[in-house]
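Q: Could you predict the 3D structure of Cell division protein DivIB?
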Amino acid sequence: MAKKKLKRSKKATSAEDPASALTPWEAYQQQQQQSQKKQKARSKPTIEHKLPRLRELRHKHLVRRLALLLTVLVMILVVAGYFVSPLSQINLISVSSNQQSPLSEQTVIDASGIQTKDSVVDVLLHRHSIAKKMTTREPKIKSATISIRHLRNVELKIKTYKTVGLMVRGSRYYPILENGMIAKDSTAQPTSNHSVYSHFKSGKKLQLMIKQYNKLPATVRNSISEIRFTPTKLNPERIHLYMNDGNQVYATISTFAKKMQYYPSIAKEMQKKGTVNLEVGAYSYPF
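A: Sure. Here are the predicted structure tokens for Cell division protein DivIB:
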């Protein structure tokens, strides 16, 4: 009877404890899993562990923000100090040109309006508007560029229109530029060997005349002393030329270059000084 009771008790315990029904390997695996869960639970950081880390991060963020603010403040002070100091003012203004310029350096500087007391930064920021102003103030300036050299030196580099003739008005001679504009400066006597224009006004007729004139060979251009605009009802483009050899020529502006190139051969055939008419056809007659 005692043996039977013992067997029943073993069966009861095995039913109550599921681990007792496991194999030794399964029991070992279960123990390992339980120990790993306990280790993970112990390794989870608590608020007490997190506090020092949070304090360190806050300190780093504060240092970075303070460094950034100090950097910005120093930059503001440096910029402000630069504008207040003489280093921000122009030290020297120079003028250069890609060709021999008919303008003096002072004339170009006056056209720019730049002075040595001006700010370098201000000139640099407004260099395009200053260049445009120079071409308006001085008709001889074709284009201008403004650059800064050695931090404080301003260089004005210009291109100028060529002088293609002299406009006579009263007793004064004004340079005529290749774009048809008439310069403001004048002289009492011609200072070059350019042809003299008279009775022209700055406009399309003068510009067309200059284009026609520039198409001629240099030998023909140099033989012309004066070009006078003398329009009529029949020919509103008529011009009257006075030649260096003593002859006179009548021509039309729009056909001037085409017909005037034959003038040297016509002049050779003339036995006396006279007039060459190139308005309609080409013929000559003595004075």
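Q: Anything worth pointing out?
A: The CA atoms of residues 146 and 156 lie 5 Å apart.
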